[in-house]
Amino acid sequence: MRVPTNSNNELMLNRISDLSVLQTKLQAQVSTGQRIFNPEDDPASMGRILTLDNQKRQLSQYNTNMNYALDLSNATFSAINSIKTISDRAGEIATLGTSTGTAGSNQAYASEVNQEIEQLIQLGNSTLGNNYLFSGTAVTTPAFAATRDASGNVTAVTYQGETNPANVVNVPISPTSNIAPGSDNTTNQGIGTFINTLVSLRDALNSGDTTTVQSLRSNLTSSEDLLVGSLSSAGAVQTRIQVAQSQNTDSSNNIDKLVSSEAEVNLPQTITQLSQANQSYQAALQSASLIMRTSLLDYIPVS
């Protein structure tokens, strides 16, 4: 009969150690619901999870872009809407100015238009953060610069923003599409034209020149049409961004489900495996205890 050797003891201890590691791993899986903690746990699944995680980060960046685009579009819409309100009132004043009125009433209208001019310059140089809304890609440059007379009244405004229609602020919202959430070059320069039209209207009202006031009405109508079109475009951009945000959210949720399917544990199966591992561990401990208590004395005959 053979006596257990050190080699047998080492094998038994190694088996016990392996079972202990397996127990710890299965207990962690049951308690956390996750089956992958290290790449070596399942290299194929880990590779898919890393790919999905990269896609999730890209979606997160696109979501940040869309939030900025929506903020820019909202700010642009709000400013243009305020300009449109001034345009409506300017059209009313131009109509009133063509009728027979007193010099005092025309000067009162002129004073009101002068205030509108100042408000328009302020609106035209609106910003989002540190970027000018109506300067196109020249976001650090004020869109409009005013020339003033000795009394401080505006005599003209000059557009200082980007003049190339091809240069617009584009924001990536997906791997295959961008969106231009700001106003276009036509609108930007059109605001300057509108302000200069009001300068002419103010001066004509001050001088009682009803003929000029009448001729300016068509210019005011053109500016109003431009503003209405710009508001419509801004609304369409906001709708597109909101649809893209919804799609982005759905894609992100789908990725979460795919990651879960790769990383989450099959709980009933893992509990069964843990129970089996516990039983094997207890059996190994008992066997080791019996074997390692064996000594030469067990094989010496009793006389």
Distance between the termini: 19 Å
Per CATH, the superfamily of the domain at 50-162 and 183-258 is f41 fragment of flagellin, N-terminal domain
Q: What pattern of helices and strands is seen along the backbone?
A: HHHEEEEEEHHH
Please report the first level of CATH classification, the CATH class of the domain at 50-162 and 183-258: Mainly Alpha
CATH architecture of the domain at 50-162 and 183-258: Up-down Bundle
Radius of gyration, in angstroms, nearest whole number: 39 Å
Query: Mean of the pLDDT scores?
Result: 84
At the fold tier of CATH, the topology name of the domain at 50-162 and 183-258 is f41 fragment of flagellin, N-terminal domain
Can you give keywords for this protein?
two-stranded antiparallel sheet; rod-shaped; mainly alpha; two-stranded antiparallel ribbon; 303 residues; f41 fragment of flagellin, N-terminal domain
In short:
The protein has a domain at 50-162 and 183-258: f41 fragment of flagellin, N-terminal domain, CATH 1.20.1330. The chain is mainly α and 303 residues long.
